[in-house]
Design goal:
single chain; 224 residues; alpha/beta; 8-stranded parallel beta sheet; 36% helix
Length: 224
């Protein structure tokens, strides 16, 4: 695993960044004894990683979130333990950050601390979202997030999906889009996140090289 100890996951609302963050934390727990996930999404009131606190605690992943436990309340109250999450050299830490440049402001508070450690910041792209459906749109969004957070994106994640209706064609479209963004920005594609049922049908060798099969942990069984 080439990823740094501290991994920040950021992306547009609806990109599936929290879903990726949850799956990534589960995967990291298979490789590291101490894993934590910090939910810093103060923008989106739905499908946050903190909602899976009980699940995480069961598998031994520590969860940090805003000090306001009511998940329907949007108050930028940040966990006092954040400095420890960022600086602890013995812990694999994931930061799930708000899905737009406004949400990225929370990172600016910790930018200097983050710059003092080895970190990765992954930008999640869902080519089926209007704001990131073009190379120009995705790069514009990426640049805004970098400017707001005062941190640099180090890797791209293709997470182009239609939830349970995701087709191989959706993934391939997202791959080509993300590849062009990579060419333009010189930022490498790190993962191709694909729902497991669809991942089984992927044949494209470029996608298979970085395939990251995911479960839909953030959606209940009754949801489409």
């Amino acid at each position: 695993m080439l990823d740094k100890r501290l991994v920040i996951v950021i992306g547009h609302y609806g990109s599936g960044k929290s879903e990726f963050s949850v799956n990534y934390a589960v995967k990291m727990k298979e490789q590291f004894e101490n894993v934590s996930i910090a939910d810093l999404d103060i923008v989106n009131p739905y499908f946050r990683s903190r909602e899976k606190r009980e699940f995480f605690e069961k598998i031994g992943v520590k969860v940090f979130d805003s000090s306001i436990r009511n998940t329907a309340v949007d108050i930028p109250a940040l966990p006092a333990q954040m400095a420890g999450v960022i600086l602890n050299p013995d812990e694999k830490s994931i930061l799930d950050v708000g899905g737009d440049p406004v949400g990225a402001r929370v990172l600016a508070r910790y930018a200097e601390q983050i710059k003092n450690v080895e970190y990765d910041m992954f930008f999640v792209i869902n080519g089926n979202r209007p704001e990131t459906s073009t190379v120009e749109g995705a790069i514009k969004y990426l640049n805004m997030i970098e400017a707001t957070s005062k941190l640099k994106v180090t890797g791209l994640i293709n997470n182009t999906h239609m939830l349970k209706d995701t087709r191989v064609e959706d993934v391939e479209f997202g791959h080509e889009l993300t590849k062009k963004v990579s060419w333009e920005t010189d930022i490498p594609i790190r993962y191709e996140a694909v729902i497991k049922e669809t991942a089984e049908n992927i044949k494209n060798e470029e996608i298979l090289e970085k395939l990251f099969p995911i479960n839909l942990y953030m959606r209940e069984e009754w949801m489409s």
